[in-house]
Amino acid sequence: MSSHQRTIAHVRAYTVTGGGADYHDQGSDHWIDDHIATPMSGYPGYADSRQSFGINVLGTLMVEIEADDGTVGFAVSTGGELGAWIVEKHLVRFLEGAPVTDLERIWDQMYRSTLFYGRRGIVLNTISAIDLALYDLLGRLRQEPVYALLGGPVREELSMYATGARPDIAKELGFLGGKMPLHHGPADGEEGMEQNIALLADMRERVGEDFWLMYDCWMSLDVDYATRLAHRAHEHGLRWLEEALIPDDYWGYRQLRKNAPSGMLITTGEHEATRWGFRQLLEMGAADIIQPDVGWCGGITELLKISALADAHGAMVVPHGSSVYSYHFVITRTNSPFSEFLMMHPSAEEIVPMFSPMLLGEPVPADGTIRVPDTPGFGVEFNPEIPRHRPHTH
Ligand SMILES: C[C@H](O)[C@H](O)CC(=O)C(=O)O
Ligand SMILES: [Mg+2]
What we know:
Helices cover 33% and strands 16% of the residues. The chain is an alpha/beta fold. The strands form three sheets. Strands 4, 5, 6, 7, 8, 9, 10, 11 and 13 form a nine-stranded mixed beta sheet that branches. A three-stranded antiparallel beta sheet has the order 1-2-3, with helices on one face. Strands 12-14 form a two-stranded antiparallel sheet. Helix 3 runs antiparallel to helix 4, helix 4 crosses helix 11 and helix 8 packs parallel to helix 9. The mean pLDDT is 97. The site of magnesium ion has 5 residues, from loops.
């Protein structure tokens, strides 16, 4: 029986804690929670740690989809118990009993039926996890890697940049660039600005002229501060300024892109979702690179549409994080020339798998490049030693 005749027999949703898809869910000594500037930095009680305001409250959502022959596909995203509830109590009705190849219809029904409480955020994370699990299932049924389902690779391997506290070590490890978290925003005044510039200058000194350095501002700035930072950082060869403003401020991004020094790229989009959100960014000329997260923007089904839109607007698509779920996509797109690797080692000094310890078989960069697994589906298994919990059933 060929895969289009197979149907979905069971859908199950689990929660998992401790790193993985909710990569902010780390120990307190991790670089990812070390006084990073955020939209909450103006509130003194929440400036030192992102966990203090709840960045890790969601946890990981794991969705498992079983076909009528017993083949199981799965995916993980950020979403935890809320996501599990949306799967089991609401969206499962569009899946069970349907042909496993009904990706477009299932996506459309999930999106339309949740419009009254969804459109982005946790609902789109959940829709993404289901869509990714369906792609994994389809790949397993057809015995093909997901990249083959998407039209095949346009290059042999992925070139990676590293996100973390140590671009100097990322350079030694062969990455093409290093993106650091910004530690100070408007609430830290001019002294904070000087510290931001001093860290960049120190890193530039360590890595030399040609290595890419970027700042990830995680939605923490305003247009004035971001413009001043961009011009100061330009003197130290900052390649791009990422997510400087809150995601809803499309007008601010448009202004910032106009204000930025020539040659500096303005990037954003990891907290944006769907073709309509990205249409807004692209039509307003708000970013040089868009950075959808395939686990949050609507899954592969939606990312294909976002990517086509970006291509027509002359913008690059460099997805945020997301490990294998991004890799299988990026390898098939000419307008996604490189990819992100989040350094999840606590001090960013060593390479560990991005969704560690949740996935088995997750590829890691060697000399700054990743070869995308050619095993069926996304090519990873859920680590059976990690406890998972099914909080709701249907
Ligand atoms: C480092 C950033 O603050 C965030 O944790 C990750 C991110 O935005 C990115 O990888 O991009
Ligand atoms: Mg970012």
